[in-house]
Write a structure and sequence with these properties.
By secondary structure, the protein is an alpha/beta fold. It has 13 helices and 6 strands.
């Protein structure tokens, strides 16, 4: 993000290899290049400068990677080579269609063949390929995406922004940023249920995952994996340890029957208060 040139395959491989080895057998999830919108990497500053009136909806993330195939191929090659050192997963950001997932799978197969011709070791089978559910279209198409994906990661920050059409960085509308909006919760529920039907893992990342206020609701909806900043782990872990899962599932069902944001917040906060007093 803060350099003027792009890392080549070898440089990326060395970085990934150190990371995978350092995890000592624990799985590592590597996201493909996620730039554009509010995340501008210096090498792309000029090419993305004229990215329409709203760069958040422009050429970014997986769209950019598929357009710049040399970029994608170099990263996939580095990830595949690092996969020989331990378990690795590949995560695709801002997916909106099945075509994009299939495009990356095709690229992955091509890169795999090239690496094998070079005599380089890679994991067999290749790393699982997952999709970030962070735009409403992906959540609504979750059943289709699950058919071509090995796992889901629900990115709540962008999902909320895109669903409610608000920029939380804009103080004039930041008050509208509400994780408990019925539309947001229904999209999350739809994605979770699609993953469960397809029997693929599903996790939640973003600020919702690291806030104990939402832990009972997410677990009640079926989430068993949460991705968060290290500073939030202790608080969320404490909440999980004191959680009655069956009660959380019942409260989640009651919440999903509601249409009013205030009533949803009240049901969740009352549950958290009662659980916290035990």
């Amino acid at each position: 993000m803060n350099r003027d040139d792009l890392p080549d395959e070898e440089e990326q491989y060395q970085a990934y290899k150190m990371l995978v080895r350092g995890m000592e057998g624990k799985p590592v999830t590597i996201r493909t290049l996620d730039v554009g919108g509010d995340k501008i990497a210096a090498p792309f500053a000029e090419s993305l400068e004229g990215d329409g009136g709203n760069p958040a909806l422009g050429l970014r993330a997986i769209r950019l990677s598929l357009k710049e195939r040399k970029l994608l191929d170099a990263q996939l090659a580095a990830i595949l080579r690092a996969s020989a050192e331990g378990p690795v997963r590949i995560l695709l950001p801002m997916v909106s269609s099945l075509t994009e997932v299939r495009g990356v799978r095709e690229a992955l197969q091509q890169v795999t063949r090239r690496l094998k011709r070079r005599g380089l070791e890679i994991a067999d089978p290749p790393p699982p390929l997952g999709v970030m559910i962070e735009i409403p279209g992906a959540a609504l198409a979750a059943d289709a995406l699950a058919s071509e994906s090995d796992f889901f990661a629900i990115g709540t920050n962008d999902l909320i922004q895109y669903t409610l059409a608000i920029d939380r960085g804009d103080e004039r509308v930041a008050y509208l940023y509400n994780p408990l909006h019925p539309a947001v919760l229904r999209l999350i529920q739809f994605a979770i249920e699609a993953a469960l039907r397809a029997r693929i893992p599903v996790s939640v990342c973003g600020e919702m995952a690291g806030d104990p206020r939402y832990t009972a609701l997410l677990l009640g909806l079926g989430i068993r994996e949460l991705s968060m900043a290290p500073g939030n782990i202790a608080r969320v872990k404490r909440r999980i340890r004191h959680l009655d899962l069956l009660a959380a599932q019942r409260r989640a069902r009651a919440i999903m029957d509601q249409m009013d944001e205030a009533r949803i917040a009240s049901l969740l906060d009352d549950f958290n208060t009662i659980a916290g007093s035990k």
